[in-house]
Amino acid sequence: MDINNAFLRGDLDEEVYMLLPPGFQTAKPNQVCRLTRSLYGLKQASRQWNAKLTTALSSVGFRQSSADPSLFTKGSADRFITLLVYVDDIIVASSNMALIQELKDMLDAKFKIKDLGVLGYFLGIEAKLNDDGLNLCQRKYALDILSDTGFTECKPAPTPMVPGSNLSQDTGKLLEDPSGYRRMVGRLLYLTATRPDIAYAIHHLSQFVSSPTDMHMVATHRVLRYIKGTLGQGLLYPANSTLTLKAFSDSDWASCPETRRSVTGFCVFLGESLVSWRAKKQATVSKSSTEAEYRALASTACELQWIKFLLQDLLVEVTAPAIIFCDNKSAIAISENSVFHERTKHIEIDCHVVRERVVQGLIKLLPVSSLNQIADGMTKPLATQMFATFVSKLGVQNLHSPAYGGVIEDDK
Fold first, then answer.
1. Cα separation, 360 vs 362, whole angstroms
2. Could you give the CA distance from residue 192 to residue 206 in angstroms, rounded to a whole number?
3. Is the pLDDT of residue 412 over 70?
4. What distances in angstroms separate CA 93 from CA 53, 115, 276, 389, 390, one per listed residue?
5. N or C: which terminal CB in the chain sees fewer CB atoms within 10 Å?
């Protein structure tokens, strides 16, 4: 659903004055008016609207999640309803349609809503629900990017980055107008909401938005060519899946040629569904590959803790420890054994959250071979065959180009 004129409903706590609008005649010249409610364009308009909506939902029994303030929940068992808010756009989910109707009536009485029906399109994300599960993709958004950049008829590329490539700030000639590069990278960043396969490529390209070169632009065009061949690709959340948490954590040691910092990559699965992923450069330089992997494990453990908090708000119990697969045995040993003092005394204390979570039973570390490390594609550009294997393990599906299922023959 959508709230009509949401920002106009926020109450102002401060004294805000504005000039009279053009055409508004008054008896005295140079008069101003004091606002009692917010207007579009005010800096505090979105905050005041959020406070108004939060108050309205709390008054009817909804509880705001501490892990994600945009999530509201109410009830339990078959009378459970959850609500997700993005400014004035709202998604409601419940197995009880009567609860959804009650919420609609309440919000319409207070704010006047626009009921958009069953979830199909939300913030540029297309949602398709069937017996197999829920499919999320951004095909229309990707088509708009290709159309605006003139890549609608381009030749598709098999991977988003050339295998083995490693761009730096000094490669190529500076662009005369960097605004086009910045706009393109910014739009591609939002595309990673349902496209984990391009997460590393966009993470890498976003490091050069301050002073992009022609080589960086060529690499961005390569991403567009890859998107051209995988337009309908998105995430599939199977209807029948176990509620167990598992994660793959990986790091590429000192991969940045300028800062020598490592890249953290992880993928978190709830059953067979990919629910969280990240490709991010680490904050400090690691002295060894073991330290880089240990820092990646710390980021993964914190993400798993946050996801457990969210699941608790959604009344989902995950009693078994979350399993983290790591391909570095030394990092696992440091996490499980506090004797490695000489190797870890220079590492920040916050990284040792991994060891604490292992002792608490929240996570369990298991080794995995580098060939089966799914998070490998979040830390470096892969060759075509390895990249295809990486994508197949992410649980993505091309809704607009389903797999070939054979020919149905007519018995007659």
1. 6
2. 12
3. no
4. 18, 14, 20, 34, 32
5. C
Query: Could you tell me the maximum CA-CA distance found in the chain, to the nearest angstrom?
Result: 89
| 194 close to 235: Cβ distance less than 8 angstroms | yes
- Report how far residue 153's alpha carbon sits from residue 135's, in angstroms, rounded to the nearest whole number: 26
Strand order, beta sheet including 322-326: 273-281, 263-270, 245-252, 322-326, 363-367
**Would you kindly state where each structural domain of the chain is located, as residue ranges?**
2-117, 137-229, 241-398
Residue 310: pLDDT band (50, 70, 90) is very high
Neighbour count for residue 94 (Cβ, 10 Å): 19
**Yes or no: is domain 241-398 CATH 3.40.1010.10?**
no
Q: Is the pLDDT of residue 234 over 70?
A: yes
Pairing type for strands 63-64 and 32-37 reads unpaired
Cα separations in angstroms, 387 against 92, 183, 374, 395: 36, 27, 10, 14
pLDDT tier at 406, thresholds 50, 70, 90: very low
Q: CA-to-CA distance for 73 and 63, rounded, in angstroms?
A: 5
CA distance 73 to 85: 11
Start-to-end C-alpha separation, the chain: 49
The share of the chain scoring above pLDDT 70, in percent, equals 95
When mean pLDDT is compared across 171-185, 338-352, 367-381, the lowest value belongs to 338-352
> Is the Cβ–Cβ distance between 6 and 88 less than 8 Å?
yes
Sheet containing 396-398: order of strands = 121-122, 125-130, 133-137, 233-238, 396-398
